[in-house]
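TL;DR need structure tokens for one chain.
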Amino acid sequence: MKKTYRKGAIGALTDEYEKALEELKALLLQISEDKFIKRCNPEADTDFQSVKNVVLHIIRSGYVYANHIRIRFGNTYVVPEIEISKTNQGIFELDQMLTYTVATFEDKWLLTDEELLNTLIKTSWTTYDLEALIEHAIVHVLRHRLQIEKMIVTYEIS
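>> reply
TL;DR here they are.
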């Protein structure tokens, strides 16, 4: 199957974001429904007590990143109310979040390196240039995918 790649630096970063989400979704498909919702780490912050909560955290954060970009460019944004209780709902909502993010970039695929570096975005936790914020979003997915992998081994939830 031939892969179609998006254009420009933003396109390459979006392709990597999509790849990270695909890897996460493949991992989720290995987890039974009852283990998806099992509270296995009660000592952790609520966002990280179950696979379901980790996935919900990833989804909500993805919207936050896209909305910071939308706000920076003066575009409209939404803050969806999302709840999940099943693996397939989590996968669906991850796809919805990616679709929303891709729509955020529709007129930005061909920004120059200078434009990327000079597009500063202030978040509640730091200030990023546009490229760094997208990179943060990618690593966020990767980091939590690894967390889920560790939960599978540590708490035997596969």
